[in-house]
Amino acid sequence: MAPDIPRPPTLRRSCQACARGKRRCDQRWPRCTRCQTRKIDCEYINVPLTVGSDTNPTTATAITTTTKSTLSPKLPHKRPRQYYHFTTTHSIPLPLPLEITKGYSQSIIAYLVSGMRAYPTTFAQNMKTHFIHPELWPSPSSPPLAIKEVHTLCKLHSTSATDTKNHITPLLQQKSLSLLHTLNHTTNFEDLLATTQALLLAQCMLILSDTDPSGLQSYSESTSTMLFNLGQKLWQQAPIQLPGSLSPRRAWLFGESVRRTIIVGFMLRSVYSLKMRNYSVRTPFVDSLPFDVRTGLWDGDADGDVDVDGSGDAMVSLHQYSGMLERGMVHGISEFGGLILAACRGRAVQGVVYPSVDGYVGY
pTM of the prediction? Predict the structure, then answer.
């Protein structure tokens, strides 16, 4: 009798439930969307290698080229009192076409949700957040229409009692749809940036609400995709050169506003997933985003000069910066830095162990 011939290992990536039902599986981990919706066990013969890739090397190459121009900041004449110890690499690595599933502790998730949920309230008070700066507008008293309208909603939301916030939900949903429509019809990048920032604030009030507005407390893949596309659209359409009429500080604020808005868009997507599913799906593309380590300039003197002809040593990738934070190479971590550390590394500022200060340099 012939011996049994061993069966070759299967290369199937779909979960067993989707395979049995002959349904398409999105291969999300630890449970695919179909199994999560049906509330059934989700088992894989092989752990998924990728989860819904949204990037490609061709796009990444074009993006990296843009980074080296408009999105690259310069060193200032006046240096804020922050101290760093690091070796920079000027080239930002190309993103890989895959996504990584990450889970964080409940305390980190609560911190991230609380931090980003506070954006609308902070904006309602002074029209400024970690990614929106009023000095960027020619007239602080006359911001772009999208910013002005969402500011009104933020004030209404922040002054409403918890049990009445649900009444604002239809207004936020309507405004979000209107802003999405406007995004496809903007005539210049400044309007695109302002509309994106307004939409992110509206989404902070909608998807991070601590109430249950009209059944929004179920995870929406379309919302996640929309947030991803916001960052991609800004990144791809960022201008290579800025108008010569901008002052050095406004030119820096413009580039920094673009960078921070993109980062916050991807962070909000991650926090939304963490809040709703207790895990987040992040792409290495996010780690490749450029970041200016001089976070003190954002809240610095409005009359402070920025040397646009100086060195660009302050530019690193977001992955490098979060690694510097985690290893204790940054003293005086800003509030924004704390959110980045939690979102990228799942760590709290209080848990950072600082090495000896010998060799630290100030920026």
Answer: 0.71
